[in-house]
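dumping these here so i dont lose them again. two proteins, back to back, each one seq then structure tokens. dont judge the mess
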Amino acid sequence: MTRIISGAAGSLTLDVPKSGTRPTSDRVREALFSSLESWNMLEGVSVLDLYAGSGALGFEAVSRGATELDLVEKHGPAAQIVARNAAKVQSSLRGSAPRIDVHRQAAATYLAGCREVPLWDVVFIDPPYDLGENELIADLKAVAPRLRQQGLIMVERSSRSPEPAWPAGLVLFKKKSYGETAIWWAEAVEGDAEAFDGAEEAVEDTAAHIEGAAEAAN
């Protein structure tokens, strides 16, 4: 069972996909959000949950004061569960009306399509452990120019995984391990515009590769 730990929707039970996702444990989520609260990075912020699963990380942020949330999940059944959870969270919040949007797309495809360059304060990247390092790097390059100055990215991986290769515009400032789980926090800093342009091209190439593979499979 997965539940929202604290905030306006605290104790609300969330539906979880039967397979294909790896929910972040209550212990790790509590540690993550204690850090965000200590950094004053929850109230009024805009959040991206890039590999949403059940949406637990994003919904925890909304429960604790985030006002905008984008959830990205490519698997159809999981995306339906995220949408169902979003409705439950919106209903439980009553007095507030955060914007919550669910995007049924692959991460690379979604990021490549963000032509209006939405800006986020906090980004959660908690992909399946079998996600390739090159795909993770492409995600980070695509997200970096879309973070507000001093915005934060959290990457959750297996403790046996190497540290992510941080692109221009992101600087690691904290790492913490919780058993089999490793958490990296990076902060957005002023980056090189040319590097950001290169990130746009990289993520578009990755998205095209994903779409081409899907067409071939069909």
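---- next one ----
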Amino acid sequence: MLIPGAGGAAWYWHRVVPELRARGHEAVAVDLPGADESAGLPEYTDTVVAAVGDHDDVVLVAQSMGGFTAPMVCARVPVRLLVLVNAMIPLPGETPGQWWDDTGAPAARVAAAEAGGYPAEFDLATYFLHDVPAGIAAAGAEHARPEADVAFGQTCDIERWPDVATRVLAAAEDRFFPPEFQRKVARDRLGIDAEEVPGGHLVALSRPGDLADRLVECLP
């Protein structure tokens, strides 16, 4: 079960789904109402729970802002494994809007840019598309949609991190959430080590085969 990041477009996972199926797994990418100002984290959670339905032996994979929805899903349905991919890792009761300053994400991004010699000012090409094939990036334009503001003010409605085996995958070339930053957040908040994978922030678009391999390797 694949949860996208901000905007909620299931298309983000369209290159990974066939890779997972080719490896013998059922794969479902969930489309979330990310642009809907009347929907937010509770509705995203409801959508994923409905997609899980009566499936058993579920592995939940969450990208970027999907990290806020994933633990809320785990609190409602049985999940075998949770895999966070370049994901925001929330504390109970934290909002996505608070997460940035709470974790120091903006400063980490700028520091990595200065060290890496690319612009610190955010733009899509530099931070999201730098390693995505040009044809895929162009096709993605019609699937791109904004994330409504409402979700950024809503809390991750869990009392504690769910009792589910959790893995954190951090892409080595992620410029938006630099890997060292992801490692620190994973240690501080979950007490686990993030595992490095190749690719940038949108690794499902740039390195789908490598990501599918790692997801399968994560299975207990």
